[in-house]
Amino acid sequence: xxxxxxxxxxxxxxxxxxxxxxxxxxxxxxxxxxxxxxxxxxxxxxxxxxxxxxxxxxxxxxxxxxxxxxxxxxxxxxxxxxxxxxxxxxxxxxxxxxxxxxxxxxxxxxxxxxx
Length: 115
Hints:
This protein is mainly alpha-helical. The chain contains six helices and no strands. The protein has a single domain, classed as Up-down Bundle (AhpD-like), CATH 1.20.1290. The protein has helices spanning 8-11, 16-27, 38-52, 55-67, 72-86, 88-104.
């Protein structure tokens, strides 16, 4: 599965300081704070990405959410729930990104997903 920071390599030579902040502050500090579990942080992060329609980072964070204990059913419910808060277009975009992740996890059969 992917890595939430998979796009870092593509931008490191352009904005090295940003990549440093991502590594040290976001992943080195924020994600390691014990006040929220990584599972909860994943739910929050995927929700924020859907609401902001930040599709470039969505797939890798959905994969990481599954790695962090979010179930495929919870991921699909999160997308459905966000349709009412972030809008149906945002939820449909998220569902299109989630589809291959859910196929790869075995939750959705390839023929059911149109792949």
